[in-house]
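A quick aside before the break. I want you to see a complete sequence-to-structure record at least once, exactly as it would be stored in a machine-readable document. Don't worry about memorizing anything.
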Amino acid sequence: MGKFISILLQDVPKPYRTPVRFLKLFLFGQSYRLLLNYRLGCYFSSGPLRSLVPFLKRAQYRKWACDISYNAVIGDRVRFAHPVGVVIGDRVRLGNNSKIFQGVTLGSHGRQGGKDYPSVGDGVTIYAGAVLIGGIVVGDNAVVGANAVVTADVAAGSRVAGVPARVI
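That is the input. The structure line, written in tokens, reads:
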């Protein structure tokens, strides 16, 4: 349980580590609450309290209209800036300090069983409505523009936009 508590505290921004500010974050911080839902789902999925997972998933759908798989690997201090309509598939890997806007989809392309999922590096920003599909790799500190459709690898530090996405 101590490891779980330390994971939760890693997601709390430093200015919110006082009791009053943490309470404000917990009650009103939608990004933190969605991430907390994900962390709890991951924690309970592999333990004796597995029966709580469907309730967490239902809360995820109803509160944020999101579908974030508890099998995805989401790094520390990820921020959902307007956490509505985000879809993150089963084997997606999302790096530390990344920022995801509303309506983003990270998933498989659906062909040949759909077993390939995106791997997103640290410090990546993905703007509203972007779609990243297939077994692509998005390098550290890259930026994906709004409504971009990314089907190929993105180099570290680059900015991509458009349909299909290309470097700008």
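Two observations worth writing down. The mean pLDDT is 89. The chain is about 30% helix and 20% strand. We'll return to this after the break.
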